[in-house]
Amino acid sequence: MEVFTPMERQGYEQVVFNYDKVSGLKAIIAIHDTTLGPSLGGVRMWPYKSEEEALTDALRLARGMTYKSAAMGLNLGGGKGVIIGDPRKDKTEELFRAFGKFVDTLGGRYITAEDVGTTTDDMDIIKCYTDHVVGLAGTSGNPSPVTAFGTFRGMQACARHVFGDEGLAGKKVVIQGVGNVGYYLTERLINAGAEVYVADLFPDKIERAAELGAHVIPPDEVYGQECDIFAPCALGGIINDETVERLKAKIVCGSANNQLLEDEHAKVLASRNILYAPDFVVNGGGLLNVAGELTPGGYNREWALSRVSRIYDILLRVFQIAEERGIGTGEAANSLAEDRIRKALEQKRIYMPSS
């Protein structure tokens, strides 16, 4: 299993492997880029099939956080933690106690938060052992509703670009994955008058979404559904060589990270006249929400929601760049983020005497 080759190829700074004998913790923390500031990214707990799969996920997610922070206008870099294990049966207090101690050894280079498979309760345990954690119950809390709001605003921007009107009433939306974010997104869409179809592997999640008025479809039917918007809200890599040709949507806009297995799949979507809303822009709401805890005045809900609402404008800017330069929307979003990082790096040449 190679580590340095992907790090060198995509500019990672640090990868830390963490093991604790008492709890059985096996965790990886990846730090991609800290040009703009300390790396911030949640810790994901998932039953990875192999250590290589866990490493690949950590690397992809950390890089995505760099671009997300830059695109959202935050002075933060990108990092991510992953814990190998099933969150439904392998969680223990000792596990997160150990993870918190490992986070603290990084001295603030990595700030952790909630992610797939982890909760605010888990963050409270981590907080006992490090100050480098956000998304706590007494402050910003569960980021999922805010992430869903940002995704909803992203859908409105996509609708305006494709249909000429941001309204979502009457639009058919297929949501893949109705966990925390998917559930709140379903609620917002139904309240907006959209016709929502949902799929998930877990029956309890489907039942909750159905109670809101969503239509339930089998997981293997999401790609072939005729719809206005396909919203991936589960794990990444779901748009691949096999699925990209099955999609019958006009727009792909969801909250999942790394929806495209490879960058080339964005080109396939474009060739089929399917608008792709870059995921690291669409799902930036959760990051903006927890980042509010790091502001001088502390967390403010109104500030967070106002910043998240701007995802609408950021996406419209991405679409504009794509059209002006004749490039894909994914490439345009990357360019927007990379330009901000490049300018910050160049300005570091200015000498600032220490106080």
Description:
There is one protein chain. The protein is an alpha/beta fold and 355 residues long. The chain has helices spanning 4-10, 51-71, 93-105, 120-127, 144-163, 180-191, 203-211, 264-271, 279-282, 285-291, 301-309, 311-325, 329-347, and strands at residues 14-20, 25-33, 39-40, 43-46, 77-84, 110-111, 172-176, 195-199, 215-216, 226-232, 248-252, 275-276. Strands 1, 2, 3, 4, 5 and 6 form a 6-stranded mixed beta sheet that branches. Helix 7 links the parallel strand 8 (195-199) and strand 9 (215-216). Helix 5 crosses helix 12 (311-325). The longest helix has 21 residues, at 51-71. It is globular. The mean pLDDT is 94.
Unreliable spans are none
Q: How many extended strands?
A: 12
Count of helical stretches: 13
Distance between the termini: 45 Å
Tell me the fraction of residues in β-strands, as a range. Answer: 15-25%
CATH domain class of the largest domain: Alpha Beta
Q: List SSEs in N-to-C order.
A: HEEEEHEHEHHEHEHEEEHEHHHHH
Name the CATH homologous superfamily of the largest domain: NAD(P)-binding Rossmann-like Domain
Content-based structural category: alpha/beta
Biggest beta sheet attributes:
6 strands, mixed
Q: What fold name stands as the CATH topology of the largest domain?
A: Rossmann fold
Shape: globular
> What's the number of domains?
2
Condensed summary:
The protein is α/β, with parallel strands linked by helices. The chain has helices at residues 4-10, 51-71, 93-105, 120-127, 144-163, 180-191, 203-211, 264-271, 279-282, 285-291, 301-309, 311-325, 329-347, and strands spanning 14-20, 25-33, 39-40, 43-46, 77-84, 110-111, 172-176, 195-199, 215-216, 226-232, 248-252, 275-276. The strands form two sheets. Strands 1, 2, 3, 4, 5 and 6 form a six-stranded mixed sheet that branches.
